[in-house]
Amino acid sequence: MQIHVQVGDVLAVAADALISTANPWLNLSGGVNGAILAATGPATQEELHAYLKSQGISAVPAGTVIQSSSGNLPFDCILHAVAIDPFYDSTAETDLLTLSTTTSLDVYNTRRLPVRSPTAPT
């Protein structure tokens, strides 16, 4: 695997998938998620909330990765990696980041997504 670092708008990067951090409630607000919401309108947010409803839950645990469509963004899909736990011990922050990153890559590999070049903000 090769890793390339670029500076710029992550929503404009030529990649097959966007890996974006998410909160447990899958609300698109602020930062990259706010930009996703602005770019796709309510469709992506509605898709994420429909997932929660279909599962009969209001939130997902840290480390969970949910795949959504990408609307009009130039990606085949968006992987929403829940990298925060509102009740976690701050000393576990690195562990949560590692877990969400490895889970995203596992989802990418096990679902055999047609993705060769994922992108993620830093």
Low-confidence stretches: none
Radius of gyration, in Å, reads: 14 Å
**Percent in strands:** 5-15%
Architecture in CATH? 3-Layer(aba) Sandwich
Shape call: globular
Number of strands: 4
Q: What do we call the CATH homologous superfamily?
A: Leucine Aminopeptidase, subunit E, domain 1
**Total discrete domains:** 1
Mean pLDDT: 81
Relative helix content: 25-40%
Order of helices and strands: EHHEEHE
Strand order of the largest sheet: 2-3-1-4
Sheet/helix structural class: alpha/beta
Text of the CATH class: Alpha Beta
Total of DSSP H or I helical runs spanning 4+ residues: 3
The name CATH uses for the topology is: Leucine Aminopeptidase, subunit E, domain 1
Largest sheet: 4 strands, mixed
Q: Give the end-to-end Cα distance, rounded to a whole number of Å.
A: 18 Å
Q: Descriptors for this entry?
A:
Leucine Aminopeptidase, subunit E, domain 1, 4-stranded mixed beta sheet, 4 strands, 15% strand, globular
Structural overview:
With 122 residues, the protein is α/β, with parallel strands linked by helices. The chain has a single domain, classed as 3-Layer(aba) Sandwich (Leucine Aminopeptidase, subunit E, domain 1), CATH 3.40.220. It has helices spanning 31-40, 42-55, 93-110, and strands at residues 17-22, 65-68, 77-82, 118-119. A four-stranded mixed β-sheet has the order 2-3-1-4. The mean pLDDT is 81. InterPro entries: Macro_dom (IPR002589), Macro_dom-like (IPR043472).
